[in-house]
Amino acid sequence: MKNFAQLFAQLDQTAKAPEKVxxxxxxxxxAEASDKLWTIAMLSRRPPGRVLTTAVLRKWAxxxxxxxxxxxEESYKMVGDLAETIALILPPAAGGxxxxxxxxxxxxxxLAENEESEKKHAVFKAWSYxxxxxxxxxxxxxxxxxxxxxxxxxxxMALAQHTGLEENLVAHxxxxxxxPDESSFEExxxxxxxxxxxxxxxxxxxxxxLEQDPQKLGEVHEWQFERKWEGIRAQLIIRQGQLFVWSRAxxxxxxxxxxxxxxxxxxxxxxxxxxxxxPFKDGQPLPLNELHTRLVRKSVTKKALQETPVIFxxxxxxxxxxxxxxxxxxxxxxxxxxxxxPAGEVLHVSELLxxxxxEEAMQERDKAREYHxxxxxxxxxxxxxxxxxxxxxxxxxKVPPFTIDAVLLYAQRGDGRKANLYTEFTFAxxxxxxxxxxxxxxxxxxxxxxxxxxxxxxxxxxxxRFGPVRSVKPEFVFEIEFDGIDRSTRxxxxxxxxxxxxxxxxxxxxVEEAGRLTGLREMLK
Length: 525
Known about the structure:
The protein is of the alpha+beta class.
C-alpha cells in the first residue's frame, strides 16, 4: 500500500503526461503482480465495489477521533474531500504490519458479509496501522470513490514501456472481458498476442488547424477538399474474416457498433479504412452527444441501435489486399476508396468538393453548419499517409466558433489536487419570462489565478448547497465560446453545446445584458 500511496501522490501532483507515465512505469517495476493487476483494473474502469456509505464512515470517524461534529464540518470545508478529511483528523497510527494494495482490497471486500459492529471493529483496526496517506486511499476503497489521476491512454503507454509490448497490443488485451479475480498479470497481457497483432491499427495521421490565410497554401488545384465531419475518428479493419474498429485513442470499439459487421460481406479481406464514426439518421448526421450517450452503455441494446444508428464515413484507405498503402499519394488511395460503397449503406465515402479558388473554399467553410459539420479538410493530393500530427499536408479549416455572454449560476469543486478549488461552473442565459436558465457547464479556459479568485468568491456568496454544488449570487458575466449547438430533450434550456469553454471574464459585463435563450435557439437554425 505504501508504494501505491506514493504513486497516487505522484499522479496527483503533476498534470504533465510524461511525468505520469514515468511514475506508473516506476511503480510497475517494483509492485507485486496482484497490485499491478488491481491498478490496471482501476484505470480500466473496473474498480472494486463500495463496501460502506460515506455517512457510515463519517460517523465512525467522529467516534474514533472523539471530535465534535462542528470541528469536523469546519475541517471538511477546508479540505474539500471526505476521505482525506477523515485521514487527517484521526489520531496518529500506532503502526503495525505493512500490507499490499491487493491485501487491503480483499480486506475491504470481505467486510461486506459482516455485521456492522464487526465492520466497524475491522475498520478501526485498519486505521490504527496506517499513516494518513494510506488511510486516505483505504477510505476511498471502502466507499468506492478511488480514482487515479490518469487516463487509460497514458496507462497503456506505461504498460507498453514496462512490458515491451506495442501499445495497440496492450489496448487490445485490456478491452477483453477480464477481472482481477479471474486473471493474472501474465495471463492478461501475454496471452492472445497473435489475435492482437491481427487487429493492429495504423498510427493515425492528424491534421493541423489552418489559422492563416488559405491562399498561402499555394495553387488551389494541388489540394483535395472534403467536409470536416464531427464524429469519432476511427479505423475499420477486416483481416482473416474478422472485423475490428479502433478509435484514435486506441480503444477497441468493435462491440459498440454491431451494424458494422455487415461489412464483412461487402468488403474484401486485408483492408483498413480511416474515417469517422457518425451518428446518422434520415440522410443527415445526428448530434455527436447522442453517440456519446450510446458509447457509455455497457451493452448496445436494440433500442439504442434504433435511436442512434451510425455509419462509417470513410475518407482514406490505408491497407488493400493486405498491402500497406500509406506511402502512395492520396489520389491513388482515393481511387481505391471510391470503389467501395454505394450511397445509403452503412459505409459512406466522404464526398469531395469541387473548389476552383480559395474564395470558394472560404465560402464553403462558412456554410459548414448547413451540412452539420465543422468546416473543411484540406489535403495535399500528393501526400502520403503520415503518422501523428505533421504540418504541411493535411489541414482542418474550422468554421468560426459561436459565442454568447452568460451568467455564473452554480459552482462545483474539482477532484484530486484541485479538490479545494471550485473548477466546474454552470452558466445561464435569460429566457422569455425574464428567468435565468442554465444551459452549459465548463471550467475550461479559466486561468489558475481566476479559479482561486472565484473559489474565494463562491465561499462568501453561496446561496444554497446541493451536495458538492453551490448556488451563487448571479453577479458575474463570462463570454462562452463553443464549436456547435444541438437540440436536447434532457436539458431545461432545450440545447446542448459542443466543446464549451470560457473565453474571458467580462468584469465590466452587466448581468441584465447577458445573452438570451432565443439567441441560442437562433443558432440552431
